[in-house]
Amino acid sequence: MKLVLPMAGYGTRLRPQTWSKPKPLVSVAGKTILAHFLDSFDSLSQFDEVVFIIGYLGEQVVEFMRSHYPHLNARYVVQPELSGQSHAI
Fold first, then answer.
1. How far apart are the C-alpha atoms of 23 and 8, rounded to whole Å?
2. SS3 for 7?
3. Cα separations (Å) of 47 from 18, 28, 33, 58, 82?
4. Comparing C-alpha atoms, which of 23, 14, 29, 13 is closest to residue 58?
5. What is the pTM assigned to this prediction?
6. Selected residue with higher pLDDT from 11 and 33
């Protein structure tokens, strides 16, 4: 089973926090939004692959995943034209 996470947008409603980081890496209650989401699963091992659809500052998501969740089989798809979540999927 795959988990697909579209997160390519600019995060304009979270400005000024998203000028220098993508919205999944904004910190809330001591950890990133992405970490809260991933940690909410009882077991991420139920997924064969986690697919991240990235765009704006997406390289930071790749770096974060490699350093904090190296055990996950993650793949990154770049959405060069940010046309919304439905388009990304």
1. 9
2. coil
3. 29, 25, 20, 22, 26
4. 23
5. 0.80
6. 33
